[in-house]
Amino acid sequence: MAVEKMVMMNLVGALEDEDKILEQIILMGNVHLQTDLSELYESHFALHVLEESLNEMRENGEVNTRGPNDENYSEVLSRIEYISKALDIKPKVDQAFLESSFEYGSCKNSIDEMYHKVSPIYEEILKTKETIKKYQAFRESIKYILDKNIDFSGLGKLHFFNYKIGKISHEDKLEIAKNYENITAIAKAIGTGDGLEVFLIIYPQKFEMETERILKSVNFEEVKIPEELRGTPIEMNEQIEKILRQEQNKLNELYQKIREMKDTYQDFICQAITRVKMTQKISNIKENIERGNSVFILSGWVPESQKEKITTQISTVSNKFMIVFKDINEIGKSIMPPTKLKNHKWFQPFENLVKMYGTPSYTELDPTVFLTITYLLTFGAMFGDVGQGLIFVLAGYILSKKQKDSFFGPIAMKLGMSSAIFGFFYGSIFGNEEWIPHIVRSVFGSESIMTKLIINPMENMNLILISAVVLGVILLLFGYGYSMINCLKEGNIQDGLFGRNGLAGLVFYIALLLIVYDIAFAPIIIPRGILITLIVISMILMVIREPLANKLQNKLPLYHEEVSSYYVESGFDIVETILSLASNTISFIRVGAFALNHVGLFLAFKTMAEMANGGVAGIIIMIIGNIIIIGLEGLIVFIQGLRLQYYELFGKYFKGEGVEFKPIQFID
After folding, report:
1. Domains in the chain and their CATH numbers?
2. Which residues 6+ apart lie within 8 Å of 98 measured at CB?
């Protein structure tokens, strides 16, 4: 339940070791690059110190200065991917290949040479496969007319007529028959098979367009005869067999060449893609670093716990560098560190739900644990059923195994656990509300605490609805606490003490709740006059929060707008505060409403099953009912639970305006 502490790292190193140092930073994967370089210029002293220490080496030619590489690595990677596809190689990025020596220019030349060797063969393979596919398709098309003694070579020599052969469905054939007198062609059925009719169409050349239009209207699928084929269908079939044998032999020879190239180039391709990707990463970093005459400087954020590791790791490849770490307090508020959430493994999947709303800023409290607990409570209360909860657990487990990087699987498992727990106390398993209470009474007795803890929602509607509102009040009070802590951490006493979500707002809300309870339910110890006084005082504090906070902090001017405009706006803000408090509180009644709705849907399907006189039909109805409820209502409750978190709670205490910690990594 914390945001990991960050420090700013300013690294100055010799240009001759730039690539080696940057490679180590990438491999460590714990540096978030600072693209705002203003902090660099504040650290110019480090650049000056190191350049002085390297002057002597530079004069002796030991240090080579150079600018960033403008090489187009995407083109090289594209060629590597092409070669890999052609040779059926599945290259994997492996850090082990980084240990070998590497020179980019030589690698690029080798890749270009491979490309020019592989490309003609691979393109010829594609062309040959396309040729084989074409002849196989034509052979399939004429198999219905092999017994016809039609010389298509002769038809092709006609001077005033053209011809086509093609396939038409039986339904379209009937359309031709109905309108035969309007067709400007001779249509002759010459074969049939697989629900299709093969037609020979002969028509005058001057009616080409009309014939095309008519054939298109009956979905005529033309069979193109390759120009090199001659004679009758049986003769063309023999020619096709001969061509296919030739093309297949040619394809086998080409594949043999590909296999030989694969054996030769496979290791190099795997090494090359690793090295080129690393070189590309290094080049991308160079766009965000500064250079002096003989040194470079890089600025970024690192977890405080990683400081020693970074220094030690870089020292393994260079001794010509200097690192200056600065705490956030030394930098000021002009640059905000990125946020890296640090939670127990059990809570980590729910970090994604927080990030869907926004990333906590560095000074904000991480709401992940609070969201996890409250979301599980509200979801379980709205969707309480042992059987369906266990279905969620099973589905989440399967999803976690199939998609290890997915966060939804672990979340579904935990939501299912919450649903099953609440389902036990609701006495519901797959909609049946008799089995669990009966078992509990049999084991613990009808007067035991366990038996009394089982509450049927439909028989205790008022209790369920009131409990939902009470839960909402408790969660909103925690929200006030989060809001005050966040404001005070930022030094914002205006909102933390006097704001609608601060101390004044909290007093106003509690006093208002007590008055409502005193009027609607039972008298309380605190006199109503004191509560009204607290409400009035807190309202006044919320109205004058800006000038009061500025006065306490000795800030001028007291108002940042016209005084009259400020108080008009503050007055409307009080009205909005009252309305939002009522809305936020009542909104939690949906938790109880969905709990009742969940039971009500089951009762509907149970009634339908009883109307079917039970038996197989009744069982099928209950199964379908459970599937619908799990799929449809489960999704609705999932969304409603998020809505309560985002609108009623996050809107009170969480801004989510931070920048997520995204370290430079070799494999994203």
Report:
1. 134-247 (3.30.70.2750), 366-652 (no CATH)
2. 23, 27, 274, 275, 278
